[in-house]
Amino acid sequence: MSSKEVTIARIYTLEGHDQLNQALDILRDEEEIFGVTIIRGIAGFGENREVHTSSLLTLSLELPLIIEFYDKPEKVEKAIQVLKSRLDLKHIISWSAMSHVDSTA
Q1: Any residues with CB less than 8 A from the CB of 1 and at least 6 apart, and which?
Q2: Which runs of consecutive H residues, i.e. helices, occur in 1-105?
Q3: I want to staple 41 with a disulfide (CB 3.0 to 4.6 A). Which of 7, 10, 64, 80 is the partner?
């Protein structure tokens, strides 16, 4: 098994803001990022403290979304800059990690 350094980035956004498909297109087609996962939250709030939830009593059409991706550090940094320049993304975090690849696969 071999290991390599990667950077993981996580973008916090809301479902109704039409950023998901645009971000996926940029990450897949333009930046050719290695791995991307979209996570839909059942509840959350941001800096304005407004709660977005999937509860039937307070059903929100703007559920929280997390767009998470990873690749080589320089590719992730470039992808973040492209995403920030084209989309109104306000909450992006990133951190270093190790990818453990089975070299026999």
Answers
A1: 100, 101, 102, 103
A2: 20-25, 73-86
A3: 64
The boundaries of the domain holding residue 43 are: 2-101
Count other Cβ atoms within 10 Å, centred on residue 70: 21
- What is the pTM for the complete model shown? 0.82
Cα separation, 89 vs 54, in Å, equals 22
- Of 4, 33, 25, 30, which is closest to residue 98 (Cα–Cα)? 4
Q: Tell me the average pLDDT of the chain.
A: 87
Query: What CATH number should be reported for the domain holding residue 94?
Result: 3.30.70.120
- Whether the CA torsion 20, 24, 30, 35 is positive or negative: it is positive
